Amino acid sequence: MKIGIIGATGKSGSLLAAEALKQGHDVTGIVRFVNRVRDSRIHVLESDLFELNRNTLKSFDVVINAFRAPSGKEEEHLTSVEHLIAVFEDLPDVRFMMVGGAGSLYVDLQKKIPLYTTPDFPKDFLPTAANMAKAFSLLEKSTINWTYMSPAIEFDYEGKRTGRYTLGKDNVITNTRGESYISYADYALAMIDEVKNQAFIRQRFTAVSERG
């Protein structure tokens, strides 16, 4: 498939691009700075996220949003999704997938208590988590073809790609050691597998893996 990755040079985006290439997809990095794309196999679309429109995205089968708002501008997690929803309303044949946050996952079976509202949630992460939760709520109410993937609570950039993961939906889940853990590499694998599997259309899902 033709996959565009917004933020393809970031931590999540770079591993998503590498995994998509590994699985044989045609990958375009949607980035603000062309010179940061180092892999010659990746096509490049130079654009600010807020300048993306129907014409710039209509050629893709899937667009994955791996944008991360800078510190102090966490509200951009919400405003960026507002903008992208408006764009994708005119692109019914293009699937929108998003690297989400763990904070909106529920900690109770009744789905009343999101993780980010619990007393022990780190205060430093609260602005990001709250805005990403609001963005997820916007997606749920939208009519676009979306999929949102929340990582585990411990999202480990240094962790190994084990090639295995366990899937869940709206609740925090744990691995065989009782840990809510996933490496960035296994997260990327689960996301790119979902491009093909299409098991979570207009749904959120999550995944955990074992420590490599």
Summarize the structure.
The protein has helices at 11-22, 54-57, 76-88, 126-141, 184-197, and strands at residues 2-6, 26-31, 43-46, 62-65, 95-99, 146-150, 154-156, 166-168, 181-183, 203-208.
Give structural notes.
- With 212 residues, this protein is α/β, with parallel strands linked by helices.
- The protein has a single domain (2-208), classed as 3-Layer(aba) Sandwich (Rossmann fold).
- It is 28% helix and 21% strand.
- It has five helices and ten strands, in the order E-H-E-E-H-E-H-E-H-E-E-E-E-H-E.
- Helix 1 crosses helix 5 (184-197) and helix 3 (76-88) runs parallel beside helix 4 (126-141).
Tally of DSSP β-strands: 10
Please give the largest β-sheet: 8 strands, mixed
| Total helical segments | 5
- Amount of helix: 25-40%
Low-pLDDT regions: none
Provide keyphrases for this structure.
single chain, 212 residues, alpha/beta, Rossmann fold, two-stranded parallel sheet, 5 helices, globular, Polyketide_Oxido-like
Task: Indicate the topology.
Layout: E1 2-6, H1 11-22, E2 26-31, E3 43-46, H2 54-57, E4 62-65, H3 76-88, E5 95-99, H4 126-141, E6 146-150, E7 154-156, E8 166-168, E9 181-183, H5 184-197, E10 203-208
Parallel strand pairs: 1-2, 1-4, 2-3, 4-5, 5-6, 6-10, 7-9
Antiparallel strand pairs: 8-10
